[in-house]
Amino acid sequence: MKFGNMSRIGKQEILIPEGVEVKVNGNKVEAKGPKGSLKMKALPEILIEKKDNVINFTPKDSDDLKSKAYWGLTRTLVSNMIEGVSKGFEKKLEINGVGFKVRVEGKKLILDVGFSHSVEIEAPEGIEFTTEKNVITVSGIDKGLVGQVSAQIKRVRPPEPYKGKGIKYVGEVIRRKVGKKSAA
To answer: What is the CATH number of domain 89-169?
Structure first.
């Protein structure tokens, strides 16, 4: 069975924005920008070339399925690193529920979401929490880590389908269910 021979994402080159410095050493990539620096070790199946301010990716063996599979992934990971050190990433979560509160103390996020105790979430290195009324903003330079911490916060109290109480992403639509109807 023969698969397609090109990765649409993998063959796109990355233009390095101004103020960002990228070093490519074999399969190691390091990006430094105004927000910080990130390092990544790519798989040996992918060749990474940097010329001037453009980065290109090519699979070492064009017939190998593994190198084709990682071609687009590697390009996306490097692209996210560059975007992270230049602009950063953020996810917003919303808390809905009577008496539900959230606050930040130092590097800890403290959630009062209807349990008998407060839930504390420690910000890992490179992650910052901010709150405004019932909205939590998780920001950082590592896209994967921002998403992981956001999911961890949401897992504390996922939204329920009857009243919509809980923690959800801003813009997320919760499918609602109709409650029991009393017999008339």
So the answer is: 3.90.930.12
| CATH class entry, domain 14-86 | alpha beta
Question: Is residue 32 classed exposed, middle or buried when 0-12, 13-18 and 19+ CB atoms within 10 A define those classes?
Answer: middle
Q: For residue 5, name the pLDDT band (cuts at 50, 70, 90).
A: low
Q: How far apart are CA 182 and CA 155, in angstroms?
A: 32
pLDDT at 6: 64
Q: What is the pTM of this model?
A: 0.85
**Alpha carbon distance 52, 66 (integer Å):** 29
Under 8 Å between Cβ of 61 and 111: no
Extents of the domains making up the chain: 14-86, 89-169
Residue 170: phi, psi to the nearest 5?
-65, 130
Lowest mean pLDDT among 62-71, 83-92, 143-152: 62-71
Nearest to 143 by CA among 68, 65, 36: 36
Count other C-beta atoms under 10 Å from residue 113's C-beta: 18
Domains 14-86 and 89-169 fall in the same CATH topology: yes
**92-117 mean pLDDT:** 94
